[in-house]
Amino acid sequence: MKSSRVRILTECALMVALSAVLQIIPFFSLPAGGSITLASMAPIVLAALRHGPKWGLLTSFACSLLQMLLGGISSPPTETLGWFVLVVLLDYLLAFTCLGLAPLFARPFSSSKAVGPAVGSVAVCFIRFLCHYLSGIIIWGVYAPEGQPVWLYSLNYNGSYMLVETILTTVVVVLLYGPLMRIDKKRPAASGSGK
Q1: Which residue, among 117, 96, 112, 134, has the nearest Cα to 174 in the 3D structure?
Q2: Looking at the DSSP assignment, which residues form a beta bridge with residue 29?
């Protein structure tokens, strides 16, 4: 049992590290934050799907903290403590931690090796988009071009990269989930000795 937990913790830590590496190699970055990466959310979603929401939330929370450390926290246009807290919550903690909820959305489709992971991936990517969308309206709306509604500005800005990120993440998760689960089935059961 102990060796199983250590193995899962090690795998989740490796997935966080892999996600961080994929995040720092963007295809395209937007000026006020947000980028299209090499499916940097996929390792976190895979860890959640493989080990459940408890491990998924722990992994995705660690990922959110690493995002803040490596990428730096964007300074809000109005630099007050309240706005800073909102940026941390909406653009980092909630936006990335929600990725750990993928198994909850995938569970109703567990009879399919592709549909469940796809639904889980799309659902959590959509929740992440909603976090950034709300942040775009509440915090970053001051950058909306004159005459453009703030909700439309946020939709265009955040949708431009999150749609591509969602597609890349979903494709990678669907392609890798089945083979990763087959590897688990071939692995001998861990002995109770903890060795």
Answers
A1: 117
A2: 35
